[in-house]
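Our consortium's second objective concerns turning raw sequence data into structural hypotheses that experimental partners can test. To show how far this objective has progressed, the report includes one record in full. It was chosen at random from the queue rather than selected for favorable results. The single chain below, 230 residues long, was entered without modification.
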Amino acid sequence: MVSPVTLAPPSPEAKTLDNESYIRFDLPGVPRDGVTVLLDQPNNTVNILADAPKEHKYDSSHRNYDGTKLRPKISVGGINTKIPCKCCEFFSGFTSHMADGVLRLVLTTSHASTRRPSCTCIYPNLTGPILMPHCCIAQGSQMPYESKRLQNGGLYVRVDMPGVPSDNFTVSVTNGRVKVTGVAPALSHDSAGRFYSGDVAILSTPVDFPARKIKTIAKNGVLRLVIPPV
């Protein structure tokens, strides 16, 4: 028998560029064509809608990201973030890129006609090693970790690692602990790359066995494991 343990995801990132604002938003499980970004100028909002399909029969459900609204000078999806800055009125356009469960937006800002005080933007604090629910999931599991015991005594595990390409995951088993790691490279205006590492399961006995015995499926910033019984 195996038992799940937790590991940690990072948080979103935002920064102000020259006449633009950059936002990196994690949407694990969402394919390249599964996100819609709408610029609602009358209401001064940027709406992000996305759907992560149920990829495996053991997934509890699909996940729907809805209600993610970005406005100048208010919070982003409940996260303590202000975008873009007080010197800007609103966004006049954007470019977007979706890959490996991460949406990257570059928003062109429309500056006010009168000069205002220098920018006092507030950016999000990275959460680091803290397991947190996704703030903008309208349907499905909000947690970045999901596990399900199987009838044969094994375990199914879903781990969100947004930004990590499908060939940048590793799985190892040492002393009965199943460990996963992943490297997400820095792209676009990211401040840095991201490294994921954590034990996702503990076997009933402290044994080593080849990781190839664990079925792994890596797709759209999500790693799924089917761990056999010991």
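The partners drew two points from this record. Residues 5-10, 72-86, 115-127 have pLDDT under 50 and may be disordered. The CA atoms of residues 33 and 98 lie 8 Å apart. Both points have been shared with the crystallography group to help prioritize constructs.
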